[in-house]
Amino acid sequence: MILDDKFYVPTLAVRPGEMKALEFLSAAAKNRMLPCFLLAPWVSSRSLERTLTRIERAFHKRHYILDIDSNYSSLNKDSIPLQELERLKEPANFYSNWLSFVEKSPWVYPCIQYNSQGEAEIRKQIESYQNVRRPYCLRIVHGHEEGVSEAISAVAASGAADFAIILEGGWTDDPLSLSLWFDGFIANGLRTVDASGSNLTFESCGGFPLGLLCANLAHAHGNIHYCFARRSSATCGFGQGP
Asked: Would strands 108-110 and 11-13 be described as parallel, antiparallel, or unpaired?
């Protein structure tokens, strides 16, 4: 299971500050982490692959989760890395461009891309990951759940335990409501997923009360792995920062 022995699963934007801070963490701390990086062009780079190089310099020879940064934008529309990023968002052939990109590194656990995809198409995408023996992740972001039910059904039908599920709370100033969303999503949205071999992790920021989460979530899902990421208040926007 890909989250075994991992105690911190932060979502990190690929920015100089985050990469430098990660680079200087101790090896012991890194070994207990499985970060989820939001893929975007690295500063002044000429290729999107340069972002992988920078991540792997900071998180040397360790697996990590990778998703596309859907909030990234640039005024330089002629940027080659930006054009490469846009091609990764193309759903053609079950997101084949995305699969080809993540295959560039043996350390990447890719996130399912389920925008504009039905359940059958997402199943094909999952099969593509499994064919190259690549564990994968379903990342569900609070407030952006369009298409999630089809993705959950596809994961439930995958017949393997080679995946993790991240429920991403994002920035919040209302932790009580977010806790209820987590709890309801597990009880209802994920009820079809066999948790016996999978991993589930919860993320939020902005003062989330860990004790409350433990109380609310430690119910009939005892065989799901829980991993809580606590982060400081937002200063740079949704879904960014340690």
From this structure: unpaired
Pairing status of strand 11-13 against strand 36-39: parallel
67 in Cβ contact with 166 (< 8 Å): no
Q: How far is CA 4 from CA 62, 152, 163, 188, 198, in A?
A: 14, 21, 12, 25, 10
Residue 37 corresponds to which tokens in the numbers above? 């990086």
pTM of the predicted model, to two decimals? 0.83
Kindly report, residue by residue over 176-209, the tens digit of the pLDDT. Answer: 888 888 888 888 888 888 654 556 665 544 333 3
* Strand boundaries in 43-90, DSSP class E: 64-68
What is the mean pLDDT of the segment spanning 113-127?
A: 96
Q: What letter represents residue 67's amino acid?
A: D
Query: CA-to-CA distance for 227 and 117, rounded, in angstroms?
Result: 28
Q: Which residues have CB under 8 Å from 1's CB, separation 6+?
A: 161, 164, 197, 198, 199, 225
Phi-psi region of 147 (alpha: psi -120 to 50; beta: other; left: phi over 0): left
> Could you give the C-alpha distances from 93 to 28, 51, 117, 146, 238, in angstroms and in order?
40, 24, 11, 20, 30
| Range 148-157 burial, b when 16+ CB lie within 10 A, else e | bebbbbbbee
**Is residue 134 packed enough to be buried (19+ CB in 10 Å), middle (13-18) or exposed (0-12)?**
middle
The neighbour count for residue 197, using CB atoms within 10 Å, is 11
